[in-house]
Amino acid sequence: MKNLVAFLIIVFSMNANAQELFKLSGKVTDGTNPLPGVSIVIKGTSKGVSTNFDGEFSIQLKKGTYILVVSAISQPKEVKVNLVKDTFLSIDMADSFVNLEEVLVSATRANEKTPVAFTNITKKEIESKNLGQDLPILLDQLPSVVTTSDSGAGVGYTGIRVRGSDASRVNVTINGIPYNDSESHGTYWVNMPDFSSSVEDIQLQRGVGTSTNGSGAFGASLNIKTQSASQEAYAVTSNAIGSYGTRKHNLSLGTGLRNNFYAAARLSSISSDGYIDRSASDLTSYYTELGYISEKTTLKGIVFGGQEITQQAWYGTPKAVVEKDAEGIQTFIDHEGYSFTEDQLENLLSNPGRTYNHYTYKNEVDNYKQTHYQLHLEHSLNNYLFVNISGNYTSGKGYFEQFKPFEEVGDYFPNNVNADEEGEVIRRRWLDNDFYAFVYSLNYKKDKLNVILGGGYNKYDGDHFGELIWDSFPIAIPSEEQYYFSNGEKTEFNTYLKTEYELNSKTLAFIDLQYRSISYKSDGLTSDLLPIDVNKEYNFFNPKFGLTYTFNNLNSIYGSFSIANREPNRDDLTKNLISPKSEQLQDFELGYKFKTSNTYVTANLYYMNYKDQLVLTGEIDDVGDPIRQNVAKSYRAGIELQAGYKFSQKLRIDANVTLSENKIKEFDYIVYDSQYDPVTWEDTAYNQVSTTFKDTDISFSPALIAGGTITYLPSKNVSLGFISKYVGKQYLDNTSSNLKSMAAYFVNNFNASLKLNPTWVKEVSINLLVNNIFNKRYVSNGYTYSYYYRPTGSTDPAITEIFYYPQATRNFLIGTTFKF
């Protein structure tokens, strides 16, 4: 009986203690705008929290009196609170400190009143899903976003499209430094494995957005800020395993702020066999940062990089092989089998299905190493004027290795006297490049006026060359002799002036004027031994105007008009027979925002009118790169809807949907027509067949994209998420042909997170991600090409080949993170 009484006393005591927990929440601002990333620590303890992108925070505490130390690393502010019930605080930091950490990226970012469509993502929001997959996959739930993976499992080569625009049209900056490749304009996330572990927050602006550094934003801009300095010393290790032999291991360390100095570092390793056969990835990366922070000045040096060795899967899987269509496979062999070895034919016939990979050579890999050096200086000249100066140097070198059967000496050394000799080769195509960048911004912010003068200068110098490392030619070929070489040199200067002015208490006017000047030179030989002679200069003026009207604390509307111009990429200039024109985009945006403490709704209408847009022809070159051509008139029009509702502290739902129409006014689709003598089999003619399409759909631009997440918190340490994504039908080229399309797909994932706080460690978290829980068989990317090969005078139809990139069926990742 005594034991029972004692037990009841303990239980009631525990309940009493539980009832003493109150919610302390609030919002931190600079007097006008919310401040994200602000550290709030309970004085005398290590317990604390950081504000989200809206400047909001929440923490559970027992009844009592506390002193909150509110700081963004510069001068802190102490706030005293007597907690006897759930309490909400409004904390104004305008008189206390300057958040220099935000100066680093504020010049190129939008705030809550900027009249553009954007979404912010915090590190916390992607933390539970950061189990080894590349950054684009972690952004899959954002509005108008479609992602894909060559290997099918999200590790290795991954891609992202926004509003139907591919990665070459999505401007990416890291701490304000341009990241897109200067020549291709693409972004290769495989070169930065596990970079998400060193990211503090991300902003995705859709459409033209605000002026930024680097390549022109025609679909979106992705602004990434690396981790903020920690107040306290820390050590974090994360380890994950999953389907297809996927493994992730990393270790992060930080000194915390010590006499105004701090240091941080991360080391990561990721490997995966891939869903597709022979699509393995072996990825390593690191991140280091050393900084000095005072009340008015922040100086930080950052070095990060990585090396990827990825087996190639970019050939794709023929449609007939995906569908295990024996007749279709034989037809494919009849058309394309002449270029296959016996091993490749055996592979095709014996391993049909979704995981088929054309490449059988075990070292058919992409091997590339890239290192970034960044130096950032932020300084507060006074309470109203802030300056940021940043420098960057990036070095990259690597190759992709290929086995090529049925080659001739003349394919590599056309002047060789034995040019007709045949054999097999293993070749490497190299890229050795250097990128230098300088960016700056000067920000004046006082009362109703916010002015930013910014810009930058960058230079790219890249060598492209190829070598044979093995051959079976019956004659001697000099080992590792370059068989082609070309150089590309690109310089860019841009400057912009952004002004936000509050016309009255409810209306904000926005003007953003940018000038870009680009020079690109390239000479030498292409990989096909064709001469290159490019010397182009472009000068662009990109104005942007907008208004935001705030009805009250809950409702606001905005509208903007922007013009953007962009230059063709390297392939456009070196592979097109007709020199392509630069592109222009006129972007109209109209939006509405509604937000309460538990509800938000946004609607954004857009009309993107293109002049001379470069679009896919459906043809690719021998390394999978698309060939494009200008079309005079085209447009994208749509509506983006977002909504979220918090039913309780335990249950919330978030959803987004994009409905769009993406059209080319008039398009000439060209198919090559090869004719031969049916008796001698000698070629007799080589022509082009042109077909005009009007009001045709733009490729890879689904009319419907939707996403949703249901989050359930059964307790404060457990989070369960059900994640859904729908992507409508996509055409593989610009002919609106149902034959050359990818079916719509609806995929669902499950995410679970458990956090524990044992005495021997600050926190232990266990995260589970089950992708494609209903085992949907779908493809998210592909390509197609058509050609005629027919007897002279024949009316045989064109031959069309279709290739898909199948995505993994049900798979999982599970990881643990220890925070010390």
Mind explaining what this structure looks like?
- This protein is globular.
- With 820 residues, it is mainly beta.
- The strands form 6 sheets. The protein has a 22-stranded antiparallel β-barrel. A 5-stranded mixed beta sheet has the order 8-13-14-11-12.
- Helix content is 8%, strand content 58%.
What percent of residues are in strands?
Answer: over 45%
Task: State the total count of DSSP E strands.
Answer: 42
Quickly give the structural class.
mainly beta
Q: Report the helical percentage.
A: under 10%
CATH class label of the largest domain: Mainly Beta
For this structure, the CATH topology of the largest domain is: Maltoporin, Chain A
Low-confidence spans: pLDDT under 50, at least 5 residues? 1-18
Report the oligomer: single chain
Q: Give me the number of helical elements.
A: 8
Q: What is the end-to-end distance?
A: 43 Å
How would you name the CATH homologous superfamily of the largest domain? TonB-dependent receptor, beta-barrel domain
Largest sheet entry:
22 strands, antiparallel, barrel
Mean pLDDT across the residues is: 90
Short description:
It is a multi-pass membrane protein. The chain has 820 residues and is mainly β.
Quickly list its features.
single chain, Immunoglobulin-like, Maltoporin, Chain A, 22-stranded antiparallel barrel, five-stranded mixed sheet, 8 helices, disordered N terminus, Beta-barrel_TonB_sf, tonb box, iron transport, CarboxyPept-like_regulatory
